Amino acid sequence: MGPVTAGHIIEPTSPVAVDLAVNGYAEQEFFASGTATAYQPSKPLQSDGKWSVKAQSSAPYRTRIVVRRPQDPSRFNGTVLVEWLNVSGGVEADADWAYLNPEIVRAGYAYVGVSAQAFGVNGGHALLGAPGVAPSGGLVGAEPARYATLTHPGDQYAYDMFSQIGRALRGSAQPSALGSLRPGRVVGIGESQSAFFLTTYIDALQPMQHVYDGFFVHSRGGSGAALSGQPLGSSAVPMGLKIREDLGVPVFMFETETDVGPLLDYGPARQPDTDRIRTWEVAGTAHADAYLVGGYAGALGCNFTINEGPQHNVVQAALHAMNDWMVHGTSPPRAARLQLSTTAPPVIARDSLGNAIGGVRTPAVDVPVAALSGIAPAGASTLCSLFGSTMPFDGSTLMRLYHDKSGYLSSYEASLGKAIAGGFLLSADRTALLQQASGVQFST
Questions:
Q1: Among 348, 196, 341, residue whose Cα is nearest residue 283
Q2: How far apart are CA 278 and CA 313, in angstroms?
Q3: pLDDT 10s per residue in the chain (444 long)?
Q4: Residues of the chain by 3-state class (helix, strand, coil), percent to 5
């Protein structure tokens, strides 16, 4: 139903602004409704991800989707990205849109953000409440003039809701939320808590329903979300949970240092790359970072310099590689895993400068000017611990490593060329990254 025009839209929260009109994009909001099914295991859940589930109950729902698409249909690249909106911080956030929107608008993707979880619609207590943030009333409480008719029966129904919305987007029904666009591919994406839910969706529902043509799983941990709708960490979901290997569609997993390490404990869930599963573990990155949080770190109570690594640049290259995988059959580059100094708990090995060893390499860690870590300083709050840290090198260290700024820039440019040639950074970001490097100050 829609586009919705009553009241005022509650935009998914994103500190990374993009001018849609300037980039030739339009945004509209629609309501999606139906009767969703909740599922339960039909046999014990195993960590190999080869789950079998059966219907348990059904309930009506009515939620919202936010659609951003090229105004000129000829710019559409045929791929629709369907994001499971993130609710961890107390408001709905389009975290993957924030990280990916430069590549999305550059390459002509269509994007749909889905209010998949009950918290976003109904409100309640967030998984990670920011300081001073009161319990949320959800969309319904925030703007009843627009959202009073929405209803969400609980997170156990969210998986089937996500299926029904994906199926509707790829259908031929008129009018379509995508206007005149007809997708060639529909891809499920999600970051952090949403990635936990996607992991469960992939193992439990995708083999039954075959809705999505691929999945981009960004910063998952070592488990999944419960089918029952219980909070994350439920013992109903096995640890060390893998993506099932018999899925038949591509799954790209993007992991930061924070995710692999003990905080999210992805380490035990590691699995080999296959012709349908690819994982990048990216050195110098944190679960969330300065690009995503911007100048809000202090307001969130983080009294240290959070991670300033290149996650946003690498994740955009990952999306580009994922799309090539689906369109042309070109497998994404394989990358070494981050090296661990211990496995229980998983602790990332570091070089003499404090940067991670192994993983996807970029100039930020191969020609470093700081120690970039996915681990926050001791004593950080749970929220701030997701943001990692940055420890800039002093002038004498920079001089010892590179002799002078010219030596640094020469080494940086060579490393950048290698990362672009390897497919881990995009040539479209080359100029901006070189400008960033030229701003590094050298002093004795």
A1: 348
A2: 18
A3: 779 988 999 999 887 889 999 999 999 999 999 999 999 999 999 999 999 999 999 999 999 999 999 999 999 999 999 999 999 877 899 999 999 999 999 999 999 999 999 999 998 877 765 555 545 689 999 999 999 999 999 999 999 999 999 999 987 665 689 999 999 999 999 999 999 999 999 999 999 999 999 999 999 999 999 999 887 777 789 999 999 999 999 999 999 999 999 999 999 999 999 999 999 999 999 999 999 997 889 888 999 999 999 999 999 999 999 999 999 999 999 999 999 999 988 999 999 999 999 999 999 999 999 999 999 999 999 999 999 999 999 999 999 999 999 999 999 999 999 999 999 999 999 999 999 999 999 875
A4: 30, 20, 45
Tell me the C-alpha distance between 94 and 374, whole Å.
21
- Reference 419, options 429, 409, 410; nearest CA is 429
Quick check: bond before 363 cis, omega within 30?
no
pTM, entire model: 0.96
Query: What is the enclosing helix (H) or strand (E) of 410?
Result: helix 405-421
Name beta bridge partners: 36.
59
Angle at the Cα of 19 (from 109 to 252), degrees rounded to 5?
35
Q: Cβ–Cβ contacts within 10 Å for residue 73, how many? A: 13
Tokens coding 132: 């001073």
- The identity of residue 143, as a single letter, is E
Where does 115-168 show beta strands of DSSP type E? none
Contact present, 131 and 300 (Cβ < 8 Å): yes
Which tokens hold the place of 198? 């996607």
Q: What are phi and psi of 238, to 5 degrees?
A: -70, 145
In sequence order, the β-bridge partners of residue 371 are 391
Q: What is the distance between the alpha carbons of residues 70 and 196, in angstroms, rounded to a whole number?
A: 29
What secondary structure letter does DSSP report for 130? P
Cα-Cα-Cα-Cα dihedral sign, residues 129, 132, 133, 134: positive
What are residue 55's DSSP bridge partners? 39
- CA-CA-CA-CA torsion for 266, 267, 268, 269, nearest 10 degrees? 50
Judge whether 349 and 340 are in contact, CB under 8 Å: yes
**CA separation for the pair 30, 100 (Å, rounded):** 22
Q: Which helix (H) or strand (E) holds 364?
A: helix 363-366
CA diameter of the chain = 69
